[in-house]
């Protein structure tokens, strides 16, 4: 038997991301939730149940206008408002299967992975090389801990 | 007059050897459940397995293949080749594949005996 190793042992995360961008497998999209009384605003990246793809999330970025705590959470129920499909970072190539969605809710949704105290108008960046992996039917979201705030959330991911 | 590859193969082995790709995997993809990717075939001379995806793929010769039981095929070009001269009747055995991500692209190429026709 003759074996060959592929690139598993040598490729860096940056090299891999570059390969995804060039291959039309890298996507990004952001959404804004407005301040709503008594509600927490959520921005989610959802991998639809029948997508047939795995989403490998590179970064999530959240920013709001006030000092608060911004949480990254797993949440596998798709939020109520569909903002749209991921935009392919290979300009002109097909949109992604992953969708960004938003929802206002009384109370935070999901299971918190990580929460960061933020300064006003200062983005919180979740992820270095890679962040989370989503199978079909799974989602991840960013949410502000205090109610009645506006927030912008953005996701960068590969579909494999 | 140059001789064709087929003629040379017929002379040496008494048969042609014809490549066929993804015969058992029309989609060219495997997922997180073990899938039969090549049937047992006594007419197979060689088997070439290539992982084209960014996920890990494992290969074994029955449906108990898993991430802890199988030949590891690394992302982006990992794989292996079986030939009858080196691997004997393993070359003709069933091939089962499993990946650690859905819709992982693979290429399974068989060299099959096609007689002298």
Keywords:
heterodimer, A: mainly beta, 6-stranded antiparallel sheet, B: 117 residues, mainly beta
In short:
The complex is a heterodimer of chains A (160) and B (117). Chain A is built from 1 helix and 13 strands, in the order E-H-E-E-E-E-E-E-E-E-E-E-E-E. With 160 residues, chain A is mainly beta.
Task: Give a written overview of the molecule.
The complex is a heterodimer of chains A (160) and B (117). Chain A has 160 residues and is mainly beta. Chain A has one helix spanning 13-22, and strands at 2-5, 26-33, 40-46, 55-64, 68-74, 81-85, 87-88, 99-105, 111-118, 124-126, 132-134, 139-144, 151-159. Chain A starts with a strand and ends with a strand. Chain B contains 2 helices and 9 strands, in the order H-E-E-E-E-E-E-E-H-E-E. In chain B, strands 1, 2, 4, 7 and 9 form a 5-stranded antiparallel beta sheet that branches. Chain B has helices at 5-13, 84-87; strands spanning 17-21, 29-30, 35-38, 44-51, 57-60, 71-73, 78-83, 95-99, 104-113. Chain B has 117 residues and is mainly β. Chain A binds chain B through residues 1-9, 11, 16, 19-20, 52-54, 56, 133, 135-136, 158, 160, and chain B through 32, 51, 53-56, 71, 73-82, 86-87, 90, 101-104. Strand 1 of chain A pairs antiparallel with strand 7 of chain B.
């Amino acid at each position: 038997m003759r074996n060959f190793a592929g690139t598993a042992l040598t490729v860096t995360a940056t090299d891999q991301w570059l390969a995804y961008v060039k291959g039309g497998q890298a996507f990004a999209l952001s959404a804004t939730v407005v301040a709503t009384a008594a509600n927490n605003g959520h921005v989610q990246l959802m991998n639809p149940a029948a997508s047939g793809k795995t989403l490998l999330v590179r970064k999530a970025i959240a920013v709001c206008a006030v000092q608060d705590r911004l949480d990254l959470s797993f949440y596998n129920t798709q939020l109520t408002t569909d903002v749209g499909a991921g935009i392919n970072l290979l300009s002109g190539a097909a949109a992604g299967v992953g969708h960004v969605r938003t929802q206002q809710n009384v109370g935070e949704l999901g299971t918190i992975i990580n929460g960061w105290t933020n300064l006003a108008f200062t983005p919180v960046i979740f992820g270095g090389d890679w962040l989370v992996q989503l199978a079909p039917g799974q989602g991840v979201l960013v949410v502000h801990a205090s109610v009645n705030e506006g927030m912008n959330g953005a996701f960068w991911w590969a579909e494999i | 007059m140059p001789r064709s590859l087929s003629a040379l193969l017929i002379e040496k082995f008494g048969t042609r050897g014809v490549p066929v790709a993804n015969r058992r995997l029309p989609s060219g993809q495997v997922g997180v459940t073990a899938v039969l990717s090549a049937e047992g075939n006594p007419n197979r001379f060689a088997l070439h397995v290539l992982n084209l995806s960014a996920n890990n793929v494992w290969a074994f010769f029955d449906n108990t293949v898993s991430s802890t039981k199988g030949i590891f095929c690394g992302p982006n070009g990992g794989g292996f080749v079986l030939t009858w001269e080196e691997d004997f009747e393993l070359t003709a055995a069933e091939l089962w594949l499993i990946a650690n991500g859905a819709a992982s692209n693979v290429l399974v190429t068989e060299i099959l005996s096609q007689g002298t026709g």
